[in-house]
Write a structure and sequence with these properties.
This protein is α+β, with helices and mostly antiparallel strands. It contains ten helices and ten strands. A four-stranded mixed β-sheet has the order 1-4-5-8, covered by helices on one side. The protein has a four-stranded antiparallel β-sheet with strand order 2-3-7-6, with no helix packed on it. Strands 9-10 form a two-stranded antiparallel sheet. The longest helix has 37 residues. The protein is globular, with a radius of gyration of 21 Å.
Length: 383
């Protein structure tokens, strides 16, 4: 693994930073407080080829890898405008459709996604939580169609998306009795799909939804990949989600550290800048160290993934480290600002809120610790 970024990658970072900088943290904070999407920024990034940078060139994408997508995630966040749906649309849905979609699905959806259309992902359910084996949403054959029934919970960005990839039960494994899962591409305007906004206490541009599938009838060509192999397919989408989630957190951490340092250099109390006090400088230095360490693990995970090597351990570690670092950095930046840290003018609370969300989702820190204990340390499974 080469830690030196190519000239093309450096230019990618500069270009994404330049676009995002035109909007800035004030724009993001305003949209977050209003729970309105950052549509203009997303579309400008798409127009320059950055939303679909990881998608194949023959379908309108940039033909780059997970490293480059992670850079887009990091730079947008580092310049005050983290894009949560990059994790969902570009990473999960884009990678799943590229790997498992039919040729017709790829031709229809990947060019649209590269141009800015969003395809979100629906796996979480109220009674399943982290135990995906308990998913109760079903898709049953009915003639040439599938009929989808069930409920999904905490699904991001449905109001912004043209379609969603839904994980549903399609039978049982006769040998083990375990549920067989399959993936389906469902238009967000499908008849029988009912969307209810799910209020959350933090300020985010992206809305959350509870979805009810009331006998949604889907043509057979809505199936992604092979029926019954949805779990294996989903796990191929989870590493990109963890890597891009880590990259967003690294960006948030960079933003928070820089904002905190700027304030500490210029804010004067009792005649000197507060950054000269170790009670201010040491926690900020610690936050900088932790963010940079998380960035290294994120780069490693992206490199492993795009080189076809096992990336599960690194992706989970990157997500864990980056989320912890981002929350700590944002919290420290707020503390350094004092009362101003809570002001909408400084735009720190929305950054903290997203970092705190990413400490829980798309996989909680506790489930990552379980993964490392079981798979890396070969300890007995605890759940």
């Amino acid at each position: 693994m080469d830690f030196a970024e190519s000239s093309e990658q450096q230019e990618l970072r500069r270009a994404v930073a330049a676009i995002t900088g035109k909007y800035g943290p004030g724009y993001y904070a305003e949209r977050a407080l209003a729970h309105e999407p950052t549509t203009e920024l997303w579309q400008e990034l798409a127009d320059h080829g950055f939303i679909g940078i990881n998608l194949p060139e023959q379908y309108g994408g940039g033909g780059a890898g997970m490293t480059e997508l992670a850079m887009v995630c990091e730079e947008t966040a580092a310049h005050g405008c983290p894009q949560l749906l990059l994790l969902v649309s570009s990473a999960i849905s884009g990678e799943l459709l590229t790997k498992y979609g039919t040729e017709a699905q790829r031709r229809e959806w990947l060019p649209r996604m590269a141009a800015g259309t969003k395809v979100v992902f629906a796996i979480t359910e109220p009674d399943a939580g982290s135990n995906s084996h308990r998913i109760s949403t079903t898709a049953q054959r009915s003639g040439d169609d599938y009929v989808l029934k069930g409920t999904k919970y905490y699904i991001s960005g449905v109001d912004e998306a043209a379609a969603l990839i839904v994980v549903a039960r399609t039978g049982l494994d006769e040998a083990t009795g375990a549920a067989r899962m399959s993936l389906f591409l469902v238009p967000t305007d499908a008849s029988g799909l009912v969307k209810h906004p799910l209020p959350v206490g933090i300020s985010l541009p992206e809305k959350q939804f509870t979805l009810h599938f009331d006998e949604v009838r889907l043509p057979a060509d809505s199936l992604i990949g092979v029926e019954g192999e949805g779990f294996r397919q989903v796990f191929d989408g989870l590493n990109p989600e963890r890597i891009t989630g880590a990259a967003v957190c690294v960006g948030i951490g960079r933003f928070a550290v820089e904002r905190g340092a700027d304030y500490a250099r210029t804010r004067s109390v009792w005649g000197s800048a507060i950054g000269g006090y170790q009670g201010i400088s040491h926690p900020l230095a610690k936050a900088k160290i932790e963010v940079d360490l998380a960035a290294m693990m994120t780069a490693k995970a992206a490199w492993l993934y795009e080189n076809g090597l096992p990336a599960g351990e690194a992706a989970n570690m990157a997500k864990y480290a980056a989320a912890e670092a981002a929350v700590a950095a944002a919290d420290q930046a707020i503390q350094i600002h004092g009362g101003n840290g809570l002001s909408t003018e400084y735009g720190l609370l929305p950054q903290w809120g997203l970092a705190r969300l990413l400490r829980i989702a798309p996989v909680s820190r506790e489930m990552i610790l379980n993964y490392v204990a079981q798979h890396s340390l070969r300890l007995p499974k605890s759940y």
